Each structure stands twice: as C-alpha cells, then as structure tokens.
Amino acid sequence: MNTPLRIAICLALAWAATGLASADLGGTTWSVTLETRRLGPIETYLAFEPCGDSVCAHSLSGAIELIRAQPRARTDDVDLSPGLFAFTVHESAGGWTGETSAPWSGRTVSLAIDGHTLTGSIDGGLFGGPVTGTLVGEATMAELERIRDYPSIVAVAEQVVESKLFDPDDLETEAYLDFRRRLGEIAAAAKDDLDLLLGFRFAWANDPFSHFELRRATTPAAAIIESFDSYDVGEQAARVVFDGDLAVLTVDTMMGNDTIEHIRAGYREIAAKGSKALVIDLRGNGGGAFAVKPLVEHVIDQPLEPGYFISHGWNVSHDQAPTSAELAAIEPWQGWSLKAFWEGVQEEDPIKLRFEPAEPNFDGPVFVLVDGDSASATELAADAFRSSGVTTLVGERTVGHMLSQSFFDASDGFIVSLPVADYYSTAHGRIEGAGVPVDIESASADALDRAKELARVTLGNTIAN
C-alpha cells in the first residue's frame, strides 16, 4: 500500500467517530479521482475552505508556481490564481453545486457527501466526467507525500520519445531541450497527477513539432490503438444541406467509421438532388483519420497520389526527403485500418498514399472551406483537394499541424502520444509548421457566404457559356 493511501485511510478512520455533516465541508481535505474523458483518471488532493456563504476547493499542488511560470499558462483564458484546479460550490438540495474557477471557469460542478465519501461530476471541459473522493481530514500539502514517482514516469516517457519520434534531430533543438528541462523541474516538484499532466500541457508549445501529449489511461496503449478501427463518433459528424442548385457538405471531424458512412451518404444525396455546385466545409475540423479518403475520392476524376509519410527509420538513415525516383518505386498504401497504418509507417518507411475516384462522382465546381483551426488529417484533405486542381480553397491558411501520432505506454498508467510520421505533399512539400494556403482569402466567419457567392457566379458563367 502506498504512503498517501495509508495517510488517507488513517486520517479517515480518525474522523469516523465524529462523522461529517455537509455544513462542515469547509476545512477538510479529500483524496479525489477525476475520471476525465480527455486526460484519463487523475488522482489529486482537494482542500475545501469556507469562503463567505460558499465553500471553495483547490488542489494541493506541489508545482503550481513552476506551472504558473509556463508561457501557455500566462494566456488570457487561463487563470491559475485560485489554484491549479479550483471551484466554488454552495449547499443545495441534496448536495453542493457550483462552477470551476481554475484553470478555466464556467463548468458546472455537482457534489454529494455521504459520510466520508464524496461523489459528483464536472459537466465538460478538460476535467469533464465523474468525481469520487475519500475524506483525508485536515492534512496540508506538506503532510501529503506525492502520489507517484513523477520523475521516473517522465524518464520512461523520454525513452519512448527517443526511440519512436519521427525525427530524432528535433530532440536536439533549443526549444525541445528547454521544454525537457522545465518538465523535469515540474516532475521533481509534483505531488499529484494534476501537477504532471497540467505541467506538461502548459509547458509544451508545439515547438518543434505538434501531436505530443501526456495522459493517463485505464487500458494499455495497444488496446487504445486497436479501438480506433471500430470507433464511432456517435453523432452526425458529416451532413449536407441544400441551397437551390448548391450543396453544402459540412464535416466536423475525420474520425469514426460512422463519419465515413455519413460522408458517403452525403455524396449519394447530392447526386440524387442533382446539385450543380458543392461547398465542402472543413472549418474547425481538427482532423482524425481516414474519413479523408471518401471525402476526396468522390470529387477527383483521376487517381491522385497526394503525398507520403516518413518516420524514424528514414530520418535516422537519410538527411533528405525521398527523391521522385524513390517514391515512384513504392507501392501505394490504400488501407483503412489505423492500427495497420501506424504499424506500417514505422516498419515500411516511407508510406505513399493513393486516392481513387469513387462513385457517385461530383464533377461540378467545388469550393473547400478551411481556417486556422483546420488541422492534421483535415490539412491532408485540403492539400489533396488543392493538388487535384478541381477545387478552390476559400478561407484562411490551415494551422500546420500535419503529423501522424500513435500511442505508447510510459509507466504507472501514463500514456504518451507522439508523432511517429511526418507528411509531405507531393506537390507542395512539408505541411507541418507551414499549413495549407487558400486560393481565396476570407475571414473564417465569412467564408461560407464568400464560397456561395463564388459558386453562383461560376454557375451563372457556365449557363451563360
């Protein structure tokens, strides 16, 4: 049994004789697990203190001053002054309700106290999910030992990064070395999972590469990877609406088998309606996986080899991208399995993509909307559309986060995801750090109206000619 758990049990037993009324919540400390959907199960300590007619809670962080000093923690939308994680609740019928105040405000918190057990939930955001806790007593941070060996966790994660990152040279850059130093300081001071996870999040600035994350998980990395091949988003992530002869196909994510089917169904609906112009809206689409394939293939009228991925093996043994002759000798990869792709891109370096025209094939004018929040696989789609010569890109240059990441076990339930492959457009070169430019610039909010205007002008000219 680890030391923090022994402390929690001993102090909880000491309080058992007196019990805990809800009115006594202020002045207590709890060992809490946040079952977050985005960062996994996070173990922390929360201290509750009276504040007027309410009760304020904050995590007992060992690294908060270091984390507050990170550049990404000093932005307008982040407030760590109340604590690394903090909220205020007031007593209500059946429990306590309130809102988060750090690091972001406005998420609803609901709690219930039953003796020495706490249950509840947070309604969304980074920490969204169920909350459970056990009473510790009135312990302070100085009295509580760290929950895990965080320097060891970081050391194991670093070994993974060194062996799997697409380009080991990036680990010698000034930006990465500075990040590694700062993360080491945070890990040495960390007392709970929040310290390490938020410390990583605020220390990493996507420099010199993107798609780098640290989280906790209840299943090993191999099971997470396996799950992607059967993953469904569970919502209508791709849908089509009609405005006269114009169809607008909006795609919110490139993830999910159901998204692939919604895209195919959308093209069938467009064909049935006989639409003469098409707008494909990819604004705010953060990417994902192979929904790119049908999205592009129902528009192109001839086979397209938009680009290729290179990974660790290539970059260790070469100091330049593949030549045209080397690429021509590679058989294109045309699978659908993310698991197979992630395995293949690390074993069959490089991997070249190929798209084939699909029916029903739309052959009218196509306008593709992108913006600064269009990322990752969405950028692959945008560049493929651009390379095809059959579309017009409207909006803003994409963000330039075009790498392929995979997942690896670190230690003690921590998972590191990192980019294992770098994508190069055959026509336009590397997208990471550069983004995909548009043909017609427009503010994101105005891009749809601009594209509709262009489509109507194009259709008018077609009819006139």
Q: Please, how many helices?
A: 13
- Oligomer classification: single chain
Q: Average pLDDT, to the nearest integer? A: 91
Total number of beta strands: 20
Mass-distribution shape: globular
Output the CATH topology of the largest domain.
2-enoyl-CoA Hydratase, Chain A, domain 1
CATH class of the largest domain, anyone? Alpha Beta
Q: What percent strand?
A: 25-35%
- What is the CA–CA distance across the termini? 81 Å
Most strands sheet:
8 strands, antiparallel, barrel
Provide the structure class. Answer: alpha+beta
Strand order of the largest sheet: 1-2-3-4-5-6-7-8
CATH superfamily of the largest domain: 2-enoyl-CoA Hydratase, Chain A, domain 1
**Domain unit count:** 3
Round the Cα radius of gyration to an integer and report it.
26 Å
Q: Could you please describe the fold and organization of this structure?
A:
The protein is of the alpha+beta class. The protein folds into three domains: 3-143, Beta Barrel (Lipocalin); 150-209; 228-464, 2-enoyl-CoA Hydratase, Chain A, domain 1 (Alpha-Beta Complex), CATH 3.90.226. The protein contains 13 helices and 20 strands. The protein has helices spanning 3-16, 64-68, 150-164, 174-189, 193-203, 221-227, 257-273, 292-297, 312-317, 324-328, 338-347, 377-388, 447-464, and strands at residues 28-36, 40-51, 54-59, 86-92, 95-102, 108-114, 117-122, 129-137, 213-216, 238-243, 246-251, 277-281, 307-311, 351-352, 366-370, 391-395, 403-409, 414-425, 429-430, 440-441. It has an eight-stranded antiparallel barrel. Helix 4 (174-189) packs antiparallel against helix 5 (193-203). 46% of the residues are buried. The model is unreliable at 3-23 (pLDDT under 50).
